[in-house]
UniProtKB/TrEMBL annotation:
This is Uncharacterized protein.
Length: 303
């Protein structure tokens, strides 16, 4: 019965497209997508949303399969159109940095740079207001800071990077916001040296394009292996409950994952025992100190 419904919906959606009834086609494909998500239907949804100039909706569906849209110039141009219509310039840069082909990557960079130049002429006053809000986010509480950070993502790359660099050295900026900026600089593959105030109140300088992503570190691989060895076949509930939290902690430790988690096997077993409320294994002082530091940081998100 479900399969017959999907076939009927697909037939109706294709007929609506043939008749150029774009809104009807979009509604039918959305109903079909709720029954079964797949790339073919996703592509129809993205294209129809763009045709109807519903760019927020197009971006919502695009993000479900975004890496599937990075292999041809037509798809990449569509990705850039959608993100820039929504003024999400920094997220767009992060996305196109995932392109593996050098020729297509260069094309994407040039196309996005042109869109940003056009926007600077049209949205000059808007960008000026966003820059002011982003620059002075340190005077607010965490919730307002994070909102201002999101505003900063709607600036072109050059303006965003210039302000973000100053925020990385501002002790009034929340640790969580600085962590988020560091992760973004990694995704943006910033090539020049960047100085930043880290969680230990020390200033460091790194070239982010040369750094290993946190989840690609040897420490992260050991943690993942230990987690699945301990829980994979025996306790999927604990695994599901812990996995995202552990990923978050590894990402937050960037770019010092190895210094924060020096004993990844025991650290992982410690996390499992904490989650289950069992007796804790012996873990070295450094790793416990950082574990508690991140507990306190993440607690702020819920406050």
């Amino acid at each position: 019965m479900e399969e017959n419904k999907q076939d009927l919906l697909l037939l109706q959606a294709q007929q609506a497209v043939d008749e150029r009834a774009w809104s009807q086609a979009l509604a039918l494909y959305e109903e079909l997508y709720q029954l079964e998500q797949n790339l073919a239907v996703n592509q129809q949804l993205v294209n129809l949303a763009v045709r109807l100039e519903q760019f927020q909706l197009a971006q919502q569906y695009l993000l479900d399969y975004v890496e599937k849209y990075l292999s041809t110039s037509d798809d990449v141009d569509n990705v850039i159109l959608i993100f820039t219509k929504n003024q999400n310039y920094i997220i767009c840069h992060e996305v196109i940095n995932k392109i593996t082909g050098p020729t297509l990557y260069q094309h994407a960079q040039q196309e996005l740079a042109l869109k940003e130049d056009e926007a600077r002429l049209i949205l000059q006053a808007t960008f000026k207001a966003r820059m002011r809000e982003f620059k002075y986010l340190g005077i607010h509480d965490f919730a307002a800071q994070y909102h201002s950070y999101q505003t900063g993502l709607q600036l072109p790359l050059r303006e965003h990077i210039a302000i973000a660099k100053t925020l990385l050295l501002d002790e009034d900026v929340s640790d969580l916001v600085r962590i988020t900026i560091l992760a973004s600089f990694m995704a943006l593959k910033i090539k020049e040296d960047v100085s930043f105030l880290w969680l230990d109140n020390e200033i460091y300088t790194r070239k982010f394009s040369d750094l290993v992503p946190p989840l690609a570190t040897e420490t992260a691989f050991i943690i993942q292996d230990t987690l699945y060895d301990e829980l994979g076949d025996t306790d999927p509930v604990t695994l599901a409950g812990l996995e995202q939290n552990i990923i978050l902690r590894i990402k937050a430790a960037f770019p010092f994952v190895e210094q924060v988690i020096t004993d990844p096997v025991t650290w992982t077993k410690y996390q499992i025992a904490r989650f289950r409320g069992e007796e804790l294994p012996d873990l070295n002082e450094n790793d416990i100190r950082w574990l508690l530091k991140f507990d306190a940081l993440f607690a702020k998100i819920g406050n």
